[in-house]
Amino acid sequence: MRRDEYQAKFGFALFIASLTMFFLASLAAYGIIRGTSGAPAISLGSFPLSLVASTISMLGVSFAMHKAVINVRRERQARFRRWLITAAVISVVFLIFQSLGLHSLLDMHRAALDEGVTKQFGLMFFLVFIHALHVVGGIAFLSGVLVRARHDAYDHEKHWSVDICALYWHFLDVVWIVMLGTFLLGR
């Protein structure tokens, strides 16, 4: 492994470790607030369906990135670029669903204000918003990979930034599923 590749992968591992700690601390805070507040449980019928639908988009981005990595390793440049473009398009669809979900959470928060219960939906909004910001960062990273891919910067030997980008999207996928599961199970 070359020095630059090693440094990039090591730096990425530290970045993911710090994000994991932040994520786990945030979920612990959500659990404590949810457990100690007198907030009524979120009914499954009132849970924003756009947040559930965005899960399909997030899985689609991870799948497309996985296919991109497979194709760059096999020197299938056209397929590789198509999967990157597919991942980019689906990631924007995810953000659209996230925006709708955030709007719904704000409406739920406003309704809870009238009842004097605000912590639960506010923290849910915060966590979903922070995740969406990380998705925006992932889109920027993916865009950089896509631009370099259009200039034939990757091949079967040198594609570690594609690997790191795919791992970041897989991480976002896992975080999203765990977070959504926590919201649904915490009802």
Mean pLDDT: 87
Could you give the count of β-strands? 0
Biggest sheet layout: none
Q: So, the CATH homologous superfamily?
A: Cytochrome c oxidase, subunit III, four-helix bundle
Q: Considering DSSP H and I runs of 4 or more, what fraction of the residues is helical?
A: over 70%
Query: Which architecture per CATH?
Result: Up-down Bundle
Give a structural overview.
The protein contains 5 helices and no strands. The protein has one domain: Four Helix Bundle (Hemerythrin (Met), subunit A), CATH 1.20.120.80. The termini are far apart. The model has no long low-confidence stretch (mean pLDDT 87). It is an all-alpha fold and 187 residues long. It is 83% helix and 0% strand. It is elongated.
Give a quick rundown of the structure.
This protein has helices at residues 3-36, 49-73, 77-115, 119-150, 160-185. With 187 residues, the chain is mostly helical.
What labels would you give this structure?
mainly alpha; 5 helices
Write the layout of secondary structure elements.
Blueprint: H1 3-36, H2 49-73, H3 77-115, H4 119-150, H5 160-185
Helix pairs in contact: 1-4, 1-5, 2-3, 2-5, 3-4, 4-5
Family: Belongs to the cytochrome c oxidase subunit 3 family.
Keywords: Membrane, Oxidoreductase, Transmembrane, Transmembrane helix
Pfam family, one: COX3
